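Example 3.2
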Amino acid sequence: MPKKSKKYLTRFLKWRYKNISNKTFVHIMSLVVGFLAGLVAVTLKNFTYFIESLLKMGVVFSENQLYFILPTIGLTLVYLYVKFVHKKPIQHAVSSIIFSLSKKGGLLTVKDIYTPLITAPLTVGFGGSVGLLGPAVKSGSAISSNLSRLFHIDTKTRSLLVACASAGAISSIFQSPIAAIIFAVEVFTLDLTMLSMLPLLLASISGVLTSYFFLGNEVLFSFSLTEGFQLKDTPFYVLLGVGTAFASIYFTKMYFAILTFFKRFKSPKYKLLVGGIAIGIMLYAIPPLYGEGFGFINSLLEGNHLKALGKTPFDAYVSNIWVVIALLFGITIFKAIAMTTTFAAGGAGGIFIPTMVMGSALGNVVAKVINNLGLGFSVSESNFTLIGMAGLIAGVIHAPLTAIFLIAEITGGYELFVPLMITASISYLTTRNAMDYTIYTKELAKIGALLSHNKDQMVLGLMEIEDVIEKNFKAVHPDMSLGEMLHESVSKSKRNIFPVLDNDKKLMGIIVLDDIRQFMFDRELYDSIYVKNLMHAPPEHIFYGKDTMKQVMKKFQDSGAWNLPVIKDGKYEGFISKSKLLTAYRRKLINYTQ
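Structure, written as C-alpha cells:
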C-alpha cells in the first residue's frame, strides 16, 4: 500500500475507534459487503449472459454439433488463465471458504476476488454444466475478508462478515433474503444469535436491493401458483422425498467417482481434452445440459416440456409421453455427470444450481409418471417440479431449511410449505443417515477442517497441532550409557520425559524419569546400563498432518497419558502435553463464545 494511502487509512482507523462503536461498525460493514457481494453476483450474471449472447450471434445453436466445440473452447480459456495468471488449481468455492473459516481465520486472497469473475463466466458461458452461485459467494467472501483485514477487524467478526457476503450474494442471485440468511447459518454453521442475525439480515437486504437496482423486478422463475397443497397428494410427496434422497446419494457418489477417475490423468491438458469431448457428447444428445439450466426449469414450470428438452436426436419420438419421461430422467442422471466432468476438466462453477436443475427434472418425471399410469391420479407437475428442487438441495448439501425457504421465496409459493417440508425433511434425513458428509465437507472432514454447530467439535476444529507442540525436551540416543544420559540430558532438562532418537531423528522410544529413578544414584551402573535397556514405547503417537485435534484429544483420553510424542514425516517433532492442550482448548472456547 502506498505511504499516502496508508496514512489516510491510519487516520480513518483512529477516527473510527474514537467515534464509532464496534457493533455499529460491524453493521455498517455488513451493509457494505452485502452490496459488494450483490454487485459481484450481478456482474457474474451479466458477463455470462454477454458471452452467451455473443455465441448466439456468432453461431447457430440449432446445429447441435456446435455444442461439441464450445465447452472445450471455454475450458481451454480457463486453463490458459489458470496456468499463466492464477498459477494455482481452482478450488471448490464453498469448500475453500469453509476451510478458510476453520483454519485461516477467514482470510482469503485478493486473487479470490477476481478469479471467479473470469473463470466462471468462461466456463458457464461456453456451455459448462455448472452454476454461478459458488463463484459469486467466493468472490464476495474474498472481498469481505480483505476489507476486514484492511480495517483490522478481529478473526471472529471477520468470519461473520464472510458469512454476510455469502448471504448478500445468494440474496442477489435468487432475490430470496431469508433463504440467504439460512444458507449462511446451515452451511457455514453460524450460531444464530442477535449478534449474528442483524449483520446477516442487513447484508441480505443490501444484496437483494442491489439486484433490484441493476436488474429491476426480473425474477429467475416465472411461476404463479394455481394449485395449492391437497391432503390426498401427501403420499406422492413422501414418494418424491424418497426419490430425491436416492438422487442426492447418486449425485454425491457420482461426483466423487468422476473426480477420482480424472485423477488418473496427470496432465491438465488430458483432463481438458477428455472432459471437453465428454461434455460435448452429452450436450449433443441432451442440449438442456448446456450452462446453468434456468431456461430448462422455467419451461418445465410453464408446462412446456418440449421447449425444455429443445432439439434432440429423439425429436421424432417425443409425441410419446414415455419417451419424454425417459429424456427428462436422462437429464436427472446426466446433469450430475456433466457438472462433475466440467469441474474435473478444469472448469469453475458451483453445484447449487445444477442441483436445482436435477431436482426439477426428477420432480417433473415423478409427476408425469403419476399422471400417466392410468390409475386415475392427478398431481400438479409444476408443483412437483418446484418441490423436487427443494428435495435435491436438502439432500445434496444437507440444508433442508435453505431448500424450503428458497423455493418458497423465489416462487412466492408459500402455500406449498407443507409439501416442501415433507419432501425436504425426508430427503435430508435419508441422505444424512446414508452419508455423513456432503460434497462441500467430505474432503474437509478428512483433514479436520470441518465446521460444526457442536461447540466442542467447532473449537477443536479451529485449533492447530502446531500451536500446542512443545519442543523443549532433551533427546537421548539409544547407545548412550546411563551416566551419559544423566550428565548430558537429565541434569540439563526441566522435563521428566526424554525422547530416544536414532541418528535420523526417528523416535525409537521414550524414557520417563520414574524409569531411571532407582538407578540414578548407583554409580556402579552408570557404564553398564544403556538407554536402549531402559526405553519403552510411548502409549500412543500423534501424527502431524494426519491426526485432527479431535483424534488427538481421543488419543489422550484412551491412553491416559499426560504427554504424547508427535511424529512428522516419520521423524520426531516434539510432544503435546495434556495440560497445554486443555489450556489452549479453554482459551479458544472463551474466544469463540464471547
